[in-house]
Amino acid sequence: MLTLMFKGGPLMWVIALLGVIALIIFMERLLLYHRSQIHALDFAGGVRNALRRGNVPEAVAICDETAGPVARVVKTIVTLHHLPVAEIREAAQDTARSEVARLEKRLVVLATIAQVAPLIGFLGTVMGMIQMFREIQDKVLPSPGQLAGGVWVALLTTAAGLAVAVPAYVGYNYLVSRVQQLVLDMEKAANEIVNHLTRCDETPAAPPS
Fold this sequence. Notes:
Helix content: over 70%
Number of strands: 0
Strand content: under 5%
Number of domains: 1
Oligomer: single chain
Shape: rod-shaped
Distance between the termini: 86 Å
Number of helices: 9
Order of helices and strands: HHHHHHHHH
Structural class: mainly alpha
């Protein structure tokens, strides 16, 4: 492997560095999404039951004990339960936007690596071909075997760029799908709690005995 790296030239090391960065970002985001994933409806049901009993501190405690963006959005709703529903929805949306931005952090770097790595590989191939033809011009015409060897070395960077770009692109799309699932969970849980608060507001007070 090191022999191929040295034969491919300095751009091979750039591509290798991009591959390492892409792997680190993918693993870090994957671990974060795994920790953030919960059963949204079960969680919302527990919070709703606490609110039904009028135990707001217990509902807040459930949110604090649950990791992830879903719990943080629901906590915003619970702590503002005394406000009008329109204001609660607006605050929940603000929290959700912040959580989505946190979830999408570094994904643009992964997408950029998937797009740039093949271009760097192609650049390395072009530079290798230029160098090979310059040597042909300066020296005696080489044999077909020598020409094939030069082309083979020049194509190493293109192969390396594609080897980094393909898994980076697949990984990016997979992570985006995980983010979308978490966003859907946030919406489900938030709607469940807001609808419960709305029904409570609409429940008529019991007539005096």
